[in-house]
Amino acid sequence: MSAGKILVYDEAGNFLLKLTGDVRVTLCGTLNRHMDTIFGSQAVNQVVIDMLEAECLDSTTLGVLAKLALHCRSEYDINVQIFCHHPSILRTLLCMGFDDIFDIHDEVPVCEGEVTHLDTVTPEVDETRRQVLEAHKTLVQLRPENNDQFIDLIHALEAST
Description:
The chain has 161 residues and is an alpha/beta fold. The chain has helices spanning 28-39, 59-76, 87-95, 125-142, 147-159; strands at 5-11, 14-23, 46-57, 80-83, 102-105, 116-117. The chain has a single domain, classed as STAS domain (Transcription Regulator spoIIAA, 2-Layer Sandwich), CATH 3.30.750. The chain is built from five helices and six strands. A six-stranded mixed β-sheet has the order 5-4-3-2-1-6, with helices on one face. The chain is globular.
């Protein structure tokens, strides 16, 4: 599996996040920092997540993306679009309830501009723990059935803070 990367394109309220390779908790600090840029924008017209070159996403990454979708829906009244054709990732997205908060497509998104690589952000251990906890609580909020999968992790993280 290839190392995960996050590439971005931002232009006039249109945001593209391109996830490639194996995207795991180690990139969530980077992803969260870029989401702060989106959350701080006055006008957000469209948010697209291109997963066409993603090989694997862990549950923390999924929780962070769910947070993005919930925020975009409540603050900007838009649905985030996901482009993915990897069967295993698609199954995971559907099992986690992503089809309730994302528009999921399997065709290639159109991007006129050049994507740039995000510099990796490595948060402190406590910040990483907080991000992992928040991500998993978001997955449970999204679909209460997810609680069974993540309750032990959530309790362990809460106990260590």
